[in-house]
Amino acid sequence: MRISTVSIYEQAVSSLNRQQAAFMQAGEQIATGRRVVNPSDDPQAAAQAIGVSQSIGILEQYTESRVTARNSLSQEESVLASVSDALASAKSLIVQGVNGTLSDTDRYSIATELEGIFQTLLGQANAADGNGRFLFGGFQDDSAPFVDDGLGNITYNGDTNERSQRVDASRLMPVSDNGERVFSSIQPGAGYIAEAATTNAGTAVFKGPGIVDATDPLFGTAFTLDFVDVAGEINISINGGAPTPYVDGESISFGGLSLELNGTPVAGDSIQVAPADTMNTDIFVTLGKALDGLRQPLLSNVDRAGFENAMSTIMRELDNSLDNVLTVRASVGGRLNELDVIDGVSQNRHLSYKTNLSALIDLDYNEAVAEYSLRQVGLQAAQQAFVDINGMSLFDFLR
Fold first, then answer.
1. Which of the residues 135, 203, 236, 341 has the least number of beta carbons within 10 Å of its own beta carbon?
2. Ranges for the Flagellin N-terminal domain (predicted)?
3. Does the reported pTM lie above 0.90?
4. Residue 136: which CATH number?
């Protein structure tokens, strides 16, 4: 068999190219720190690595989403904390204003301070985030949700929707609460509220109502207590029923409730007793009534009785509103805690994906350095063999 010089050169070059390619591949692996630099290095591992990388990318997107959600909820929680403090201050001022030793001027001064709290609450209700979106407008977050007509009447122009954000593959979390839920709602089970008619001309003052029997068949319905004249005596008729004599200082029971009455009513006076959620639930309306009451001069016992009844109703409404704000705030805190839990789970999942990805494509440096040295020796041997073969000639053997 004849072996031509061209064949020898071609085989040598081919061997050198193979050795050079293997040597360069080992060097590239060391330089990149990856065992699979090209899909052809390990097609199966490369395909699996793509899937794992996509999973890591999705996790990172959810992580960024949770950062945005946490910022929104943290801002809301801060505002709700201020609202809670403002309502507590308003309650203290109203308790102070009910003090019978105060003059009309004293009460007016208290009203001035309460007006400041009113405006503070209005400002908090129209709070915006760092992007200019109003926190409590629902989907209508491009304009102030609460508008003052200049007469102290506040109108809510937002909607009842809540912005949500997907913070994990299986969790779509509300990241805001609409203004109606925060400032115009109360929690279920808030009980009853009593309210005297503004036209009452007597001096009857109520305390309560209190719940004595929640299993009463009529419990949960509304009641109207009318004071009527029966043969020259004041009687009480409940929801138009048979009148019963009114006794100053005694409690009356109806529908599982108890209401204490003091003073002297006149025929035509009335008191409404109804579940709290069917009465006024608007914080701004409540504070508006408080401001009107504190600013009104008390010129007679009738005025005094009307003032005390109004403040009693207002205190119940404020208690319910504060409970509602605290409940919403607790809900926001719960969502923030949930984000922390999801973060912990996500970090563990991210570490697991990274470990799997490393096992698929990352390099074992000890093995790679040994391979690199071996390929270097192989390349050098091939080069030396080519040089040696290239220098051989038949004439060297002819003597």
1. 341
2. 3-139
3. no
4. 1.20.1330.10
